[in-house]
Amino acid sequence: MDLVSLSTEEVRNLFKHQRVILIGDSIVRGIYKDLCCVLTGNNRLLYSNELQFNRHQIKKETLFGEAIEKFYAKRRNSTFNVEQRSLKSKSFGYDVTYIFTSRIWNQKMVQLLSSLDKYDIIIVNSQIWDLSRYEDNDGQSYLKNLDIFFSKVKLVKKNNYMVDECTNK
Predict the structure, then answer these.
(1) Cα 88 to Cα 12, 16, 98, distances in angstroms
(2) For position 20, what pLDDT does the model report?
(3) Is residue 20 within 8 Å of 120, Cβ to Cβ?
(4) % of the chain beyond a pLDDT of 90
(5) What tens digit of pLDDT does each residue of 136-148 get?
(6) How far apart (Å, rounded) are the C-alpha atoms in residues 73 and 83?
(7) Which of 57, 95, 111, 162 would you call most buried, defined as having the most Cβ atoms within 10 angstroms of its Cβ?
């Protein structure tokens, strides 16, 4: 597979007038923050201290002017943590949202399902947490839940849409 290099301008144009939701674990949070970095004009990926910025406590300051809409962290790496962030731009017309989940299919995903119809692009990944936090050693539960998730999304998103489940396959 050949890697494609995109400039900040090209990324902004790809996301222009797009509503994007990234749903997943801490890995997806990193993807969301990298995307925010590029969309706000920084032609680079995040430094390690930026990836960890404001990760375990809510602060008023943010790296890229994003809004922290929901945040609750009982303890680090808990499957019960709640986090929702969003970055919006009127001039470029994009709306990018990140929602933490530790499972591809759970009650939180059921609640999110009805709101997915308003997004153009859905990026989801919880594979590492699904397998490691729920003792799913052979991945059967994860694959079953992945099938449920995609079948439910197809019912909600009847028009064209893009869903990307980032996996190690």
Answers:
(1) 12, 11, 12
(2) 94
(3) yes
(4) 17
(5) 788 888 889 889 9
(6) 8
(7) 95
